[in-house]
Structures
1.
Amino acid sequence: MGVNYKEPTLEPDELTLSLIASGIIRLHETLKNVKAPTLPYPPELQRGLDRLVLLCLRQRKTPPQGVPDLLDWCRKPLAEWPLELPEEAGSADRLLDGQIPTSLCDEWAIISSDIEAELTQKKLLLNVMQVCQSAAIPDSYVAFRRLLISQPVLTSLELVKHGLDPCLERLKDHLNTAYEPAPETYSIDGNFYCCANCGNLMARTEKGDLICGEERDRCQNLGKPGRQIAQREGVYWIKRGIRRFIAAPGRAELRLADKLKELGLDVDLWPNFDSYDLRIVFPDQEVWAIDVKDWVNPFLLANKVKKQNPYIPSDPPWQKAYFVFPDARKQQRADYLRAFNHHCTLPKDIKAKFERDLIKDVKKKLGSIK
């Protein structure tokens, strides 16, 4: 949260896609409990459609015939769109998976200033920081983030109990802001089902299968039904921006912190109220800063990172820093690291690596000081 962002500079076709993605996210948020879009459509979606129609006409190609047709386009690979995008921009990916915006859709949305999903979660965390800083309770800030990450779905009673926890009682109102009633469209025969892999709500496909409603790209094979909650208990789910930009990377942050602690290192989560994600201290007192980035598309991530100023804040100070990507991203895309480095040249004291490669560097460092 100590990072400032420059206004993004997008190529014309990138802006068109970003506007459409932004409009899809807004449309999805307004249709949580209904199944068919209604007028008026989000202005970003209409602006993106107008730009796409004009582009198609210039290329003498058939444009989408209105928003419903555009939504059908969004279920097709970007390679089928008449857009000029960088090679690494995810041409095989889609903006919609059925009725659900994909993670890629979120990423295209937030590279422009038109979408509020990311700003919403930033505003929430900034407010939480202010409360915790003024009361000198950094442990409460950490506890608040841990809860969002580890328990994205709560019953109404659980939400009340967490608000009464001594560590979180000052943040009760912020908890109520972070969680919202689960969409009725996710209720199946009077019950909600949580993904056993990530904990988010599951949705039913047209074929009747249960699939993760949030992390589909990673839970496609792992996302089996876990917890079942009766609708009558009152079910709450963290808001979309929080799910995407706090909870999703947060699972990798917590996992990495546990691995580093097992190696005997001192690890602080979100030091100095989230200057970066992990601060690790070696026996010789050398400090490494870790910033976990969990994006589907390395081109979009690079576009976002290179606009950060600074790349990784220097307070608290560190001698070496890393951007770290979950290993699953490499499994999904073998050239992930190459694509990121191609579009974002980092300073010499900051490296980009996958989880397992960071652990190798840590073990090498530990071996050198024994």
Note: The longest strand covers residues 225-230.
2.
Amino acid sequence: VWTESLTTWYKYLHNNSDAGMNELIAGIVSKPLPPEPTPLTSLPPSTPTGTPASTSGAPGGNGTASPTAPAGTTQPTSKTSTTPAASTSKPAGTKPGTNPDRPRN
């Protein structure tokens, strides 16, 4: 049954001809299958890159995963967009659920 389906698709892709199909199948069958993957049974341990922030005010963690800059240096600031946001407000005097362009009765 699978050979009929394979032949149909092979002919569709090869101008209604099955020439070379047997060689294709023989080449595929002659290659060994890859090894079966081993199942993942446990995750490897992870190491935190930062230390937790201290909530008691005592010295401790820095509260960040990124390294801190040496004293006397400044971190580069990221540029923010200066384009104004699109307005989503309604014209004055309109109620929610009403259309200001529609004439009232």
Note: The longest helix spans residues 2-13.
3.
Amino acid sequence: DEPGRRDEPIDGILGFGLFADCLLTLDYPANRVVIARGELPVADGREILDFTQEHGIPQVRLEVTGIEVAADVDAGSMAGFSLPESLASKLPLRAAPRVVGRARTVTNSFEIKAAQLNGEVRLGAHRFADPTLDFQPLFPVANIGARVLGDFRVTFDQKHRRMRLERTGVTGESGPR
């Protein structure tokens, strides 16, 4: 059993690949999923981003105070920005990362640390001033979870490996800039 999921009945999980031939929109503010035909325009690096998909998870480029990192777009994660622990010493943090929780995978258990960034995270045209960052020791890439995605309508075009981020007017943990 996963913590926090014991009281929530789950009939199954639909994988990202199931939607490879259509546009998949995760409209977080409206709490809905939209499946449509069509394609996204060519990536502009602002609202429409190119992504790679080496392990079945879309991966984009994220800029953290000028440092570019690969980041999985993880709709199943309740976290915000999660980075490899090795980056913590390279970033201007307001304080040293402190343990905020534990996580586990099928084969590992590890501590999650967090600290507030003294700077900006950029995801395309979207900026996040002084966000709290999670740090984990296990995964080599960053992760963007629902705490960040929650302000967006996110549309995936897997055929062309593009993703559109539409901020819906709701402000996130650090607000728009």
Note: The helical segments are 146-149.
4.
Amino acid sequence: MGDVLADILGIYRIAVFAWIIMSWVRISTTHPLARLQLWLDRIIYPVILPLRRVVPPLRLGGAMLDLSPIVLLIAITIVQSLLRSL
């Protein structure tokens, strides 16, 4: 059971990576990838928004760096390791 949950978290981790990469590019609503981006938003935002409240963005001069996806990826990796060790 732990391996199945760890595998599901692995798929979710890939989705987080895809979401991060897609956030760097502006995609038109008529583009075929717009549906994928919308789907990723729907599965990532419920998890990432509470993290954004806890982990403030890092100020780099005039820019802000959102660290919450990195924290999420680290948390997923830790939970996967715990599940696989059971």
Note: The helical segments are 2-23, 33-54, 68-85.
